[in-house]
């Protein structure tokens, strides 16, 4: 059985969702993922929420750390992995991608956010590993 998600990770996730809602209200759907990423990070910075963007994520294979070109979109407060999308519809592959990032990093909480949804709440998924 898993341990509960720490309260500090839950707080960070709530801040991300609130910031994402603010960005989506201001910009709406239809832009590139990279635009939403920059704006979300700007919004997190305004709120003094620590984050790191485009973190390189090595893969350990055969006992060797290899750079396979994987990158986390955003890691918030050292706890929450954020995978951003700007697609017509989220598909199982997107969830699998975030689950893989959670496994590779050892983090347990992730948010999959599709900014191309008319209502952002329909494009939000909270994933726990």
Describe the structure.
With 129 residues, the chain is α+β, with helices and mostly antiparallel strands. It has one domain (7-128). 38% of the residues lie in helices and 27% in strands. The protein is built from three helices and seven strands, in the order ααβββββαββ. It has helices at 7-27, 33-46, 92-105; strands at 51-56, 59-61, 64-66, 71-76, 80-85, 109-114, 124-128. The strands form two sheets. A five-stranded mixed β-sheet has the order 1-4-5-6-7, sandwiched between helices. A two-stranded antiparallel sheet has the order 2-3. α1 (7-27) packs across α2. The model has no long low-confidence stretch (mean pLDDT 95).
Query: Count the helices. How many?
Result: 3
Instruction: Point out poorly predicted stretches.
Output: none
Sheet with most strands: strand arrangement: 1-4-5-6-7
Strand content: 25-35%
Helix proportion = 25-40%
What kind of sheet is the major sheet?
5 strands, mixed
**How confident is the prediction overall: mean pLDDT?**
95
Radius of gyration: 14 Å
